[in-house]
Amino acid sequence: MEIMGMFQVLPRLVVFDLDYTLWPFYCECLSKRDMPSLYPHAKGILYALKDKGIDIAIASRSPTSDIANTFLEKLGLKSLLVAQEIFSSWTHKTDHFQKIKQRTGVPYTEMLFFDDEDRNINAVSKMGVTSILVDDGVNLEAFRQGLSKFSQNRSSLERNKQRWRNFSQQSSSSQEL
Question: Which of 19, 53, 84, 111 is the 20 to 30 Å CA partner of 167?
Fold first, then answer.
C-alpha cells in the first residue's frame, strides 16, 4: 500500500500473466491435485490493489485453463478478479486484452500489465497498455517500476491532449479571422 501512496495517478485495472509471473511454474506441468504457490510478493500486491479499489484481471495463454482456474480457486484469488482470459493463443495476448477491455470497459491507457514474455509485453504495449517485463515473477520492485511507468505514460498522454486542445482552439480562432 505504501508504494501506491507514492503515486498520484494509479491504473484502473492491473492485469497479470500467471505462469512465471504470479506463480513459479507452468500450469501444464502440474495436475489439479497439486497445491500451487505464488511468488513471495504476489499475494500482498494483489490484496493491496484490491484494498485500494483497483480492479485486477488475468491474461494467460496457458493451454490448460482448467488447471489454471483450479489453482486460482485453491489460492483464493478468484474473488479478486474482475476478468480472467485464460486460453491458448498465437496473438501474444492481444485477443485477451480485447476481451478484457470489452468485459470491463477500461481503456487500454488505464491498464497496467505484468508478464514474463517479451513478445507479450511488446504486442500489448502497442495497444496502449503500460506493460512491465518481470524476470523472476512479480515483486515489489517490478510493481514500483510499473506504477512509475504508468504514471509517466498518463502524464505524457494528458500533456498531449492539452497540446491538441490548444492547437484546435488556435486553429478554429484563426479560421474565424
Answer: 111
- Examine the pLDDT at 5 and tell me if it is beyond 70: yes
Orientation of helix 118-125 relative to helix 94-104, angle to 10°: 50
The SS3 assignment for 36 reads coil
Q: Sign of the C-alpha dihedral, residues 62, 64, 68, 73?
A: positive
* Residue 62 and residue 27 in contact, taking contact as beta carbons nearer than 8 Å: yes
More confident residue, 158 or 91: 91
At 73 the three-state DSSP class reads helix
Measured CA to CA in angstroms, residue 152 lies from 9, 22, 34, 95, 158 at distances of: 9, 24, 41, 26, 10
Catalytic center residues? 17, 19
